[in-house]
Amino acid sequence: MADTDAHPITVAIERRIDPLRTAEATSWMQAGTDLATAFPGFLGSGWVRAGEDSDLWYMLYRFRDIATLEGWETSAQRQWWLDSGRPFAREERVERRTGIEGWFDAPLALHVETRSGTDATTQTVQQPVPVAPPRWKQAVTIWVGFFPTNLLASWLLGFVPGFAEIPLPLRVLATTLLLTPVMTYAVLPWVTRLLRPWLQRPPRSRKASP
Which UniProt keywords apply (predicted)? Predict the structure, then answer.
């Protein structure tokens, strides 16, 4: 049996933000992302607001395995960051998922921790877990984000003097280094949120043959 601790872990966090301090919260969320990138095993992160008039903000980050995730979550840097946001950010719920499905699941569907104000006591709540989308839907979603992003990048890089003369392996290296964080931080979270109704649509039941 495979060791589940060696699988990538995706964490989704729901927070309530003081609507009068959104500018501070925006900088604060980005600062947390910047801190996490320096830790071993960091695979990417992103955050979105539930809506323009909503005080609910969602943050998503991913680490190589449980050991590297706990290295970040128990670090002094993260504790300092959390303390600096307490005047305007209140953590509501936390979810952990393993595997690539963590990018596609509905937010906060499993192993939810609830907090009240600054109370350190947490309560674990089990909620129904939606079935992960079929692999083909996940592949389509990734392609929908990657194709236009890669097309735009290839077109823009064509204007860089001498880029076409660079050896192919180096061109591919430069392109992937450029596009990987774009896909991780922006494109993939946005596309999965946009396509979520389709991703989570249950399969049609087949009618019995007469």
Answer: Membrane, Monooxygenase, Oxidoreductase, Transmembrane, Transmembrane helix
The string of pLDDT tens digits covering residues 50-79 is 777 788 888 888 898 889 999 999 999 999
Edge to edge, what strands does the sheet with 9-17 contain?
Answer: 42-49, 56-63, 9-17, 89-98
* pTM (two decimals): 0.47
Residue 97 pairs with which residues in a beta bridge?
10
The answer to whether 92 and 16 have CB atoms below 8 angstroms apart is yes
Task: Map tokens 């280094």 to a residue.
Answer: 177
User: Who's near 179: CB < 8 A, 6+ residues apart?
Assistant: 146, 149, 150, 153
Contacts of 119 (CB under 8 A, 6+ apart): none
> According to DSSP H, which parts of the chain are helical?
22-37, 66-73, 76-85, 135-157, 168-182, 188-194, 196-199
Alpha carbons 147 and 181: distance in angstroms, whole number:
15
Amino acid sitting at position 86: R
Q: Which fold has domain 4-125?
A: Alpha-Beta Plaits (3.30.70)
Look-up: residue for tokens 């969320």?
29
The gap between the terminal CA atoms of the chain, to the nearest Å, is 43
CB distance 4 to 81 below 8 Å = no
What 3-state DSSP class applies to 206? coil
Which residue spans of the chain are classified as CATH 3.30.70.100? 4-125
